[in-house]
Every structure is written in structure tokens, then in C-alpha cells.
Amino acid sequence: MTGEPTEAALKVLAEKFGQYDTAAPTGECNQKNNPMSYAEYLKKSFTLVATLDFSSERKTMSTVVKNLNGIEGNQVLLKGAPERVIERCTKVML
Known about the structure:
The chain is α+β, with helices and mostly antiparallel strands. It is 29% helix and 21% strand.
């Protein structure tokens, strides 16, 4: 795994979620054979458009993807300081 510790932790979290994803094909997502299989499966489901690296001014990192989960158009995946992330949200899930 490459990248910052936060990115590695997010990938591990995604792999843990993958254990419970009933839509994921079991033959393709076999964690015993390949610990990163779920991340690889997810990566096939969208197109990477752009990455805006973390900056101390923005206090966030953004990745723009296309066709995530079958939704047409671009979506932004954002991580960063909680106050910066929350101020950009239009909805909150509890």
C-alpha cells in the first residue's frame, strides 16, 4: 500500500466494509487470496477524473470521479478537517 497513513487507513476500512457488501462478487472479492480485492473491485466501478492534493490552506483533499455507483456525471470524494468537510455538506446522515 502506498500513500499517507490516513489513505492506508481508509483503504483498510474499505476492505472491512467489503466483507459485508452482498453485491460484491464473492469470486472476485476473496480476501483470503488477495487482501486488496475489494478495493480493486471498487476501483473498477468508476473513472478517476482529477485529484486535488491536500493543502494547508484548504485543509482538505479532493478526488473527482465519474460514474461512481452508476450515477452519471462527476462526484467529489472529500477528506480533511471535519469543520471543512461539514461546511461543504448539503446533507448529514446520522
